[in-house]
Amino acid sequence: MPRTALLVSGALLAALLPLAAAHAADDPAPATVDRFEGEVPFASQPADGIFTWGSDTDDPPALHLTDRADAPEGAKVLTGTYDISGYGGFTHDFAADRPAHDWSAHQGIRFWWEGRDDGRKIAFEIKDGGANGEASELWTTSFTDDFTGWKRIEIPFTDFVYRTDYQPVGGIDHVLGLTGMWGYAVTLPAGTKGDFAMDDVELYGRADQSLRASVSTDAPVYPVSQGGTARVTVTLATTGDRPVDDPVTVTYTTGGGTATAGRDYSPVSGTLTFPAGTASGASRTIEVPTRRVRAAASAKTIPLKLTVTGARAPAETPQIVVDAHGLPYLNAELPVRRRVADLLSRMSPEEKAGQMTQAERGAVGSGGDIAAYDLGSLLSGGGSTPTPNTPEAWARMIDGFQLRARATRFQIPLIYGVDAVHGHNNLAGATIMPHNIGIGAGRDPQLAEKTGAVTAAEVRATGIPWDFAPCLCVSRDERWGRSYESFGEDPALVQSMETVIQGLQGRADGRDLSRDDKVLATAKHFAGDGGTEYGSSTTGTYTIDQGVTKVTRRQLEDIHLAPYATAVRRGVGTVMPSYSSLDIAGDGRGAVKMHARGDMIDGVLKDRMGFDGFVISDWNAIDQLPGDYAAHVRTAVDAGVDMMMVPYSYKDFSSTLVDEVKAGRISERRIDDAVSRILTRKFELGLFEHPWADTSGAAAIGSPAHRAVARRAAAESQVLLKNSGGLLPLRKSEKVYVAGSDADDLGNQTGGWTLTWQGASGTHTRGTTILQGMREAGGDVTYSKDASAPTDGYDVGVVVVGETPYAEGVGDVGNGHSLQLSAADRAAVDKVCAAMKCAVLIVSGRPQLIGDRLGGIDALVASWLPGTEGEGVADVLYGTRPFTGQLPVTWPRSESQLPINVGDASYDPQFPYGWGLTTLTGVPRGGTATLHALAVAAAAAERKGAGRAGRALVAKARLLVQQKAGERMTEAVAKPFADADHLLLTGRYGKAVEKLIEAYRAV
């Protein structure tokens, strides 16, 4: 209901002031925070001042101190205009070189706000404790602009809650102390233009005990085995940590719930008293004994009702839960299929629907809805992290959610999922691997498996058993913003890298899933997401992501489905369909969203390929299906999607699914199939026996051993495209001039999906930049980011340039991105390479068009997105390791050639698929005769099934061709060269060498 608008004039204010003073005669005088008369400047730390901020250069508001005749206080008010696309607002930080302010004597904070009656929500936060305003703990609340004219907004301190999405220092003590305050901040609404006016921020009222004292319990749920005693700790806390002035009483009684008093437990009641003078933090314990019952039973709940006098009561009633016992599904000695069948037979339609529902952690708050809706799964979207973002905090958070699931009838554990797509990339301090495009460049299946194993160990050590990885897309157009999530453009290359599934899950039969260093893997995005046609996307401003893949049936099978057949053979536990649509020539259906394609999900994946795991939708993907919401649910479920990722609409999904089943529009048999698949994986993961986080491996997160794997992966991912005069490797005696935007930027070299969905430039996690790696390697290095420093006196220049982070369709070419280097990067390359011999490293998720500058560059390296271990790049630059990487995608001459891929009828790239020069490796002597001998030997190795020998023989032939071709790349050379690499990956070693002979002759 809208608040009544309060229009204020100066005369009215004068009349109201005596009344206000009389009403609050026993309150402390209001304490001014801001009058906006000019005494507080527009300035930032360490000075006392007001400053703006925003997610990009356009988002900070414009602020002014404006003379207003209707100013509620004084002559001036703070006014501002804004047009915020991401986030933006302003802050008043108190001077950091003076003591913090003490607000603990007051009831709250208030200010005048000029309403626009636009219904927008304005967030207001205060800064508590810490070293200064930018290193404090943030507490937040909001108010709605649903009034017109000036209105005084009063916010008691009890309305503020700890901010969970961002804390500048990771949080301090999670207690609003009010004795060390550093100011406030206002977050303005995003999405449309607006203006505001604000005046007279002040503290008001007296902090009476009922507002500053609170009673809490140490947990919301207390599981206990039958016959055990639950112990509930009740704690008294006060803002400012001061003793209470008056007594606080807590009356408690058991009753209600599903447990029966006298049979399942002994009822208790009584009163706890915290006398006047009791210190903040004092606690008392209530014991609730349960009774042993011989009959098997599901879990029973016992609410403990608390009535508090003299303080605020807990936000919710704590529950004691007598654990389920004696039921067959709880017997770990039984086969999984029998446990699943027993549990399924006991579940209600609502409980089954809950198992098929996945919500975002940020949507469920403290987790009460987990039991209320019998939720089966939660996830963290990109950047959705606990505060502080530490392994311990992740484990505590997930254990807290699992605790909520113990209050459900059958105590089915949650399965928590996260996008750990190149290491545990949401966790600060985790080991960040190269993105998949770099792993594909490494051509090392054993190393790919090791990167998966490190990722799994770090993810599971934080309590997470499920990873939405790997991406098995076959990237066919580098304009796609997700192209770096692909191992490459050749399905054979993608298949060879699927050893990562074993790294994540262990053995294909699933027997390792319950280990504390393995996670359930997800093959995504089924199928064809890498083949979408440029310009076909209908999602916002995307140009190619979530578009339409147009293929023949043969192309679909050979290119886009082949990696999933391999994944199924490797035992992958879950599969995620793509947002994209599939248009199969000749089937008469046109473009159909993958989440609606039962012919592909049920027909191909489950029936033909024999996939026995479960299918999880992509984020809100069912919302893109045609029809009303009920149609969305029916279509996706009937197509074979078993669990829906409905981050913030989980209530609507669950209730709609139940309604559709009860109405007979979705069959119970289909629901039982979906839930059986989900429960099977939960049993295999050992979650029923061990739902809690096993943090025994947490000490290894970001460890030297794990980083050594990432360092090797970074080194192997480097592709040497050109090396005139043998410029690389560098000698440590050489004086090296380093420049470029990506030389010393950890965020740029880790790319998207790092701490946040889109990633960010700058230092946001632990790692080593390429520049730091070069220095640690012992190089004589001088650094000038923009190449503005003098260039005289150097032996060689290294210019590290490339892209800034992006993810998904945000990174599509044409959506604010291109395949061209920035103007600053081009200038740095031109200046350094004109002054000295130079090597250019391109840090990017896809090829960059650099052909117009290639003649002036002595050495060119595709560095991809190497992750946190920049030493790996330095290892190959300085010759500690050889360059061995090969192009996982074709490097085009121009954007007009796109899409261009190995196997195309017309194929004339700058560098062909599979190209990659080497260092520290001798090239075989000889010419055509040597190649023919290698072909004969390779064919023999193929017949014998000697894969290692066959690959080595093809590699020798490739080195011969590359040495002769040099920079004389033509279509006649490029096409058979690229074809040879595909043949190599499919085990046809003799044919691969024959193609290389064809390329050799064409030079």
Automatic annotation (TrEMBL):
GO terms for molecular function: beta-glucosidase activity; cellulase activity. GO terms for cellular component: membrane. InterPro entries: CalX-like_sf, Calx_beta, CBM11, Cellulose_Degrad_GH3, Galactose-bd-like_sf, GH, Glyco_hydro_3_AS, Glyco_hydro_3_C. Residues 719-918 form the Glycoside hydrolase family 3 C-terminal domain. It is an enzyme of class 3 (hydrolase). Keywords: Calcium, Glycosidase, Hydrolase, Repeat, Signal. Residues 1-24 form the signal peptide. Residues 350-680 form the Glycoside hydrolase family 3 N-terminal domain. Its EC number is 3.2.1.21. Residues 214-280 form the Calx-beta domain. Pfam families: Calx-beta, CBM_11, Glyco_hydro_3, Glyco_hydro_3_C. Belongs to the glycosyl hydrolase 3 family. This is beta-glucosidase.
